[in-house]
Amino acid sequence: MKSIVVLISGRGSNLAALIAACRSEAWPAKIVAVISDRDAPGLLLARAQGIETQVLPFAGFASRELYDEALAGTIESYRPELVLLAGFMRILSHRFVERFAHRLLNIHPSLLPAFAGLNAHRRALAAGVRIHGATVHFVSTVVDGGAIVAQAAVPVFADDDEQRLEERVRAAEHQLYPRVVRWFIEDRLRVQDGKVELLGEQEPMQLGLGPAT
Ligand code: GAR
Question: Is the pTM of this model over 0.90?
Answer without folding.
Answer: yes
